[in-house]
Design a protein that fits this description.
Layout (H helix, E strand, L loop, with lengths): L10 E4 L2 E10 L9 E8 L5 E7 L9 E12 L2 E6 L5 E5 L11 E7 L2 E7 L2
Antiparallel strand pairs: 1-2, 2-3, 3-4, 5-6, 5-8, 6-7, 8-9
Amino acid sequence: MEASDLSDGSYVMIDDEPCEVRSVSMSSPGKHGSAKAKIKARGVFDEKDRHITKPGDSMMMSPDIEKKEGQIVSIDGDIAQVMDMDTYETGEMQMPDDLDVSENDTIEYWVISDRKLVKGLKS
């Protein structure tokens, strides 16, 4: 997608890291140049703030986000073995520190660029 088409809450790849756009401000075009997009974003996995300036018509990569549900099979510390509710495949995922889960809980997780991110309990 074009840098000028980004909006708050959309997702974009910056430095090969999926990021959520926090704000986009457009500068007006100058006498000899095009409008510039100043993008402020936060990394989805590492939560680092990233700032980038691009021409408004430059193309930006948008990550593919697959939203899934899984059931917790077992927990060992902050690592949980999770079974996908669609494919019944199991895999290990790191649980966020602020999420209180137990066995048999259903969670929502995202798969972004072959990496998994636990979003929370499924209600």
